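Ticket #4471: structure export looks truncated?
Reporter: QA, pipeline team
Priority: medium

Steps to reproduce: submit the single chain below to the structure queue and open the exported record.
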Amino acid sequence: MLFYQSDSQLRLVSRHRDRLAQAFRFVLAEPLLVESLLDKAKFQDLAERMKLPVPAARRICPTGNDPEEIGLNFPIIVKPVQHAERDMVAWKLIASSHKALLVETPETLRVLWPHFVAANLDLLFQEAILGPENRIESYHVYLDQTGAIVAEFTGRKIRTLPVTCGLSTAVETTDAADVREIGRDIVQKLDLRGVAKLDFKRCLKGNLYLLEINPRFNLWHHLGAVAGVNLPGLVYADLTGLPRPVGRVARAGVRWVAPWADMRAAQESGIPITTWLWWLLHCEAKAGIAWDDPMPIVKKVLARIPRSRGALAQNEPYATS
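Actual output as written to the record:
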């Protein structure tokens, strides 16, 4: 049985699916669709052809191009087209731990441009949807081999680290009918199979814009299982011929947290530590913490005491990883 949790794992399984299928069971979207969803520029082209609600964007290699000619309205978001290891090493030299960079003005873009050229990356420049990160909402789904929706749930980000364009450190399930409706429409248009996470951002007027689609397993599935919808469990049941688990409706308001990273995110958001600790204690799903098996977290705390505060969250899992 194969459960792929990163872009690199997804790419490996998809590109070698015929050979792997001789020894493993797994469920995947079609090869061309997987390649399009893994490449942000290809995804933008696909979304525009399918008339999906994506922000305007352009793929640009900064080398040999002029920042004055991107043809987009500011502010904009800049992010690497692919998450290949080499690309991400170069990207982190520019953006540190930010998944993307928010560029407010053409003047700021001109300052950043030489760094983009030096990185020698293909980049996606996208018109920004204004609003904080907690306006990013998501649709999570498993579609079986016939294309039928087996189970689904919706969620939203609570906090990220860094606060802008960061990775999720705290998330929660929701009961957003419009997110569910548009998510269903998109996966059916794409004829998707397997699991997927669709990220949207709700603009200040309330409209939903599609940011990306990740057709793989991820840490949101921990939260979904705690809330009542175990998408990996349903996949496992289908692949092994077992009965599907009953009760496939997720409770809204169930929360997941990556404690070390979220402590820093809360501090950066101005939340008092006592307020955050009370919230943490009542959070239903915690990455790396189980009160009935406390020794791993005790050992983790003791091992990290000598490290700098900046290293505490270095290896902690995030909801979108």
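Status: closed, not a bug. The export was complete when the record was re-opened. Leaving a note from the reviewer for reference: The longest strand covers residues 149-161.
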